[in-house]
Design goal:
Strand 12 and strand 13 form a beta hairpin. Among the domains are: 73 residues, no CATH class; 192 residues, no CATH class; 142 residues. Helices cover 54% and strands 9% of the residues. It is α+β, with helices and mostly antiparallel strands. The C terminus is likely disordered.
Length: 715
């Protein structure tokens, strides 16, 4: 009886097919065989774990199997299996020659009994016609991918982008990469495979002469060839088109009761060491405190607010100074610092939100600039101010959650990369910029935070600067940011010139989100028009450029939109001079522009995304499309709020309530969209595996969804 099965060498599971067809008389035998196979998978997983940096050498068989299953499902794991790394030998012969010999997972074993073959070695010839190209091909693929990974291999996995469901390319644009990625070959020893075949030299020479493929591989030195005489056990080595006797240099080898007793003693492969242990969980940021007065409550919120910004700042300083002074922090230390900063900031942000909701507080302003603000008498006042309300705090929490997810992902994904510390320095700057931007209460604070986000984003796009494309893309992104920031910078200059300061609360209105409204009259001005143009450019620019060059950065558009919403609420308006006609209410320019202005980028992203051939570009354009919808939601909300002033009674109440509700809809749309896109981006490399799993489950090819410009037959 024959039962078909599929062995998943990554998670050590065996799937059997057509089990319902096993006759009742053989079910007990199959159950025994299945039990033996399960035990073998556990032992195989245990032996594989010796090569893994995250597995202790003392784990049990069942724990080892669970460990490899977890590695196979870890989205951040770039080394789930290691494949055929360290392969070096191919043995074709009777199993009795190798049974009991520890080969350290470096050998391909093919069963062949020369006593069952004929004088022409017909069986051996057929075996070698399959074994030679397959085993030598695998060995040479690992060999060349190791000796020249950039030329013959696929480089590092980190920037790989799945293209057309048939291969990978680097980033958003490159040739398809061939060969193996560095993570698969870093522990491989580049040697030509040694073929040991149980036959006579005369029989092997006849096979070489008769078979052109076997002859070319053997004569041209692509493999090393030796034969083991079935009768005399003499070994002969193929050199210069002839077999020459081989004299063993060692006659005694170490012995052990079993391989399980032997391989834990061996050192891990070159460059392999134990992974860091999971960091101990940090304690609560603050003990439970009973707030006895509103003043004490505000002081606690101010302290928590400083923690939200202070921990990312401290992380940036520590990682930045250590890099500047060339103090090499270990990956474990860096990961613990990142973990401490993100968790502490996140706990503080959640505590602020819960406390504000519990106490009914809607607006808290923290002005550390009072302690060190820069004041130019009779001219300008530059200060640092952070605003905590029901809009800014959710964005601060979102930034910590997504940044923490990426940080935990990258600590494994970037493992043993040369740029590990450089990445986390830029990561820390990015997190700091996101938090400052989300909570900014003055335009100079906003500009500082957004510059940190822009600088770190551009440098992350150009992270693999040894290749031309990332460096070119990083320069392009930085150029777009310079143009995009012109409007924001011009608005900052205009605000300081006319008001002497850039405080949003004093300039843009009173009340708390989502009910805030302007308390000053604003009038159109040329500088405001430039600010509006810059704001609209920023809306489309980062989404279209960073969405392609820096996958996963679409969430910056969400915070950016919040910034425009609050900081440039009427980007085409400036305070009216005395005697000028009364201007339209604040936000009218944005309302005019948002509803209709969101349509072009939304439809452009939809059409462009429909023809993308790689997964990350498609996700980037999908993100831009959603940003267009979010902008439209905000525009409709502002229109409803403005229209409510033209009515009275129940109609005004309904319109005002609709405006407030739509603002919350936009907020939740932003939060949900950012989380979804982050998950899709980190899971993008597993798309092919997901396709195979689904197609195996349904027993047919998945239908191809078609866009508006999909070719015939794909709709």
């Amino acid at each position: 009886m024959f039962v078909g099965g599929y062995h998943n060498t990554c998670n050590e599971t065996v799937t059997f097919f057509d089990l319902d067809r096993i006759p009742e008389s053989h079910r007990q035998e199959f159950a025994a065989a299945r039990k033996a196979i399960d035990a073998t998978c556990e032992r195989n997983a245990h032996e594989r774990c010796r090569r893994f940096m995250s597995a202790p050498l003392t784990m049990s068989f069942s724990a080892a199997r669970q460990h490899v299953e977890e590695r196979s499902e870890d989205l951040a794991q770039t080394r789930p299996e290691l494949g055929h790394a360290t392969n070096a030998i191919t043995i074709v012969g009777r199993r009795e020659w190798t049974r009991g010999l520890y080969l350290d997972r470096r050998a391909f074993l093919t069963s062949y009994d020369p006593t069952q073959d004929d004088a022409e070695s017909t069986i051996l010839t057929r075996l070698l016609q399959a074994v030679y190209p397959v085993c030598s091909g695998i060995n040479l693929e690992y060999y060349f991918s190791n000796v020249d990974n950039a030329g013959f291999g696929a480089g590092t996995k980190l920037p790989h982008n799945l293209a057309s469901l048939l291969g990978v390319m680097d980033g958003a644009a490159s040739d398809l990469r061939t060969g193996l990625p560095w993570q698969m070959v870093e522990i491989h020893e580049p040697v030509r495979s040694l073929f040991i075949i149980e036959t006579t030299p005369e029989a092997m020479l006849r096979i070489i002469e008769r078979n052109e493929m076997i002859g070319r591989i053997s004569r041209n030195g692509w493999v090393q060839l030796a034969v083991l005489d079935p009768e005399s056990r003499a070994i002969s080595v193929f050199q210069d088109n002839a077999f020459r006797p081989y004299q063993p240099q060692a006659t005694v080898i170490p012995k052990a009761a079993s391989s399980v007793d032997w391989y834990p003693r061996l050192a891990r492969p070159p460059g392999v060491r134990r992974d860091r242990k999971p960091s101990a969980c940090f304690g609560e940021l603050l003990t439970e405190t009973k707030i006895r007065s509103r003043s004490e409550h505000k002081n606690v919120l101010m302290f928590l607010g400083l923690v939200i910004v202070g921990f990312p700042l401290l992380l940036t300083i520590i990682l930045g100074i250590s890099s500047l002074l060339d103090w090499k922090l270990t990956e474990e230390t860096t990961s613990k610092l990142v973990y401490a900063a993100i968790v502490s900031g996140l706990l503080a942000a959640v505590a602020v939100l819960v406390s504000m909701l519990w106490q009914g507080t809607r607006h808290i302003a923290i002005d550390p600039g009072r302690l060190g603000g820069v004041v130019i008498p009779h001219h300008f006042h530059f200060s640092v101010k952070f605003i905590f309300d029901r809009l800014s705090v959710p964005f601060a929490i979102l930034s910590f959650v997504l940044s923490g997810t990426i940080g935990a992902f990258a600590s494994k994904y970037m493992h043993r990369e040369r740029g590990f510390n450089r990445f986390f320095v830029l990561y820390a700057i990015f997190v700091l910029g996101m938090e400052v931007t989300s909570l900014a209460g003055t335009i100079e604070t906003l500009f500082t935070g957004w510059e940190l986000v822009g600088l770190s984003s551009a440098l992350l796009v150009a992270f693999f600067q040894e290749r031309p494309a990332p460096a070119r893309n990083g320069l392009w992104v930085w150029t777009v940011y310079r143009v995009s920031d012109a409007g924001l910078l011009l608005a900052a200059v205009a605000m300081h010139h006319l008001r002497g300061e850039g405080d949003f609360d004093k300039l843009l209105g009173t009340g708390s989100w989502p009910d805030e409204h302007s308390s000053v009259s604003l009038a159109p001005g040329p500088a405001g028009g430039a600010a509006l143009a810059g704001a609209r450019r920023r809306e489309i620019g980062p989404g279209a450029v960073l969405g392609l060059a820096a996958p996963g950065d679409g969430r910056t558009d969400a915070v950016e939109r919040r910034v425009l919403w609050r900081a440039v609420g009427a980007p085409g308006c400036l305070p009216a001079a005395a005697g000028e006609p009364a201007p339209e209410p604040i936000g009218a320019g944005l309302r005019r522009d948002s509803g209709a202005g969101a349509c072009p980028p939304r439809w452009f992203a939809y059409l462009a995304g429909s023809v993308q051939t790689d997964i990350k570009s498609a996700l980037s354009f999908a993100s831009l499309s959603q940003v267009g919808i979010i902008v439209a939601e905000i525009g409709v909300a502002d229109s409803c709020s403005a229209a409510s002033s033209a009515f009275s009674g129940q109609a005004a109440t309904i319109l005002a309530g609709t405006g407030v509700g739509l603002r919350y809809v936009a907020l939740f749309h932003i939060l949900g969209h950012a989380c979804l896109r982050t998950l899709q981006f980190v899971r993008a490399p597993t798309l092919l595996q997901d396709y195979r799993t689904l197609e195996n489950a349904i027993g047919a090819n998945l239908p191809r969804a078609g866009g508006p410009v999909a070719p015939p037959g794909h709709g």
